[in-house]
Amino acid sequence: MYDGTLGVIGAIEAVRALRESGFSPRRSISVVMFTSEEPTRFGLSCIGSRLLVGALQTKALDDLKDASGVSFHEARNQAGYEGDISTVRLDAQSFSAFVELHIEQADVLETTGVNIGAVTHIAAPAAAEVTFEGSGGHAGSWLMKYRNDAGLAGAQLALAVERIALDRGDDCVATTGKFEVFPGAINSVPKIARLGIDVRDVNLERRDSALQDIEKEMMQIATLRNVTANFMVNNRDDPAACDGRVVNAVIEEAAELNLSFSQMVSRAYHDALFMAKQFPTGMIFVPCRKGVSHRPDEFVDEHDIHNGVAVLAGVLVRLAGEEKTEL
């Protein structure tokens, strides 16, 4: 897999190449590998970067448990992370800039034949859980006109989620990525439907208005189908704008290497989203085959990896080679 791994190995390779070239930075260069960037068994992504910049208070970890009742602290101790977690918060002066190399996780670069993506904004993600509850019953005994089918209510809302995002243009995306029905038997009318909905946008107002419209739609569907409904937002993060100086460094380095580039928005979760709360931040995207990610066939061509690492190394030279008095 290349998602995340490329950023870690690529950064190590970029630093190795700079060292071998004899480059002597004015500023220290650190390679950071974050823990728990993907949504974890505790239902929260980017735990490492959230803690580093204070976007997550350490006390909040005390209440985190997985589906089996294992606490966050028990899990981290079992994994060998036994240090005092309250000490991980970074000082605002720790870094003058943060740069993350990543696969695009979409097909824009590949389909347009562009080598490098210079990320300008990282979308604001929010996660909501919707539960519908009807009366259930035997699939053969209950006449269609008397049913309060929670599954159909869920299906109707899933279609509404798609429409609500489409109505807001390309920068808004929404996904019903989780859809469970209970009791889940072919001969039972669904009594409960539980949906996990992900909404993202670079514009916070537009993202939140989409969430509000989804909740309104849920209530209308519940009334229409005579079921109860509950709407809960589990997580809501703000968007991030990448630092202009870092973005320009990516663009300038790509141009110097004769690589084509495009300014673009990231709609995926990244640790950069949280690092940007405290440090000037930028991201470098490289193409991935057919835009595939989070699947076993995720793939990035070696040539594109080389391009990404080369741009990263050049960006590090531009940023770490600056006089400290200039920042």
UniProtKB/TrEMBL annotation:
UniProt keyword annotation of Hydrolase present: yes
Species in which this protein is naturally found: Gracilariopsis chorda
SUPFAM superfamilies cross-referenced by the UniProt entry: Bacterial exopeptidase dimerisation domain (SSF55031), Zn-dependent exopeptidases (SSF53187)
Membrane-spanning segments: none
Subunit structure: Homodimer.
Keywords (A to Z) from UniProt: Hydrolase, Manganese, Metal-binding
InterPro entries per record: Amidase_Cbmase, Bact_exopeptidase_dim_dom, Peptidase_M20
Pfam families noted in UniProt: Peptidase_M20
PANTHER family according to UniProt: ALLANTOATE DEIMINASE-RELATED
GO MF terms, alphabetically ordered: hydrolase activity, acting on carbon-nitrogen (but not peptide) bonds, in linear amidines; metal ion binding
Cofactor annotation: Mn(2+)
UniProt xrefs under NCBIfam families: hydantase (TIGR01879)
Protein name: Ureidoglycolate hydrolase
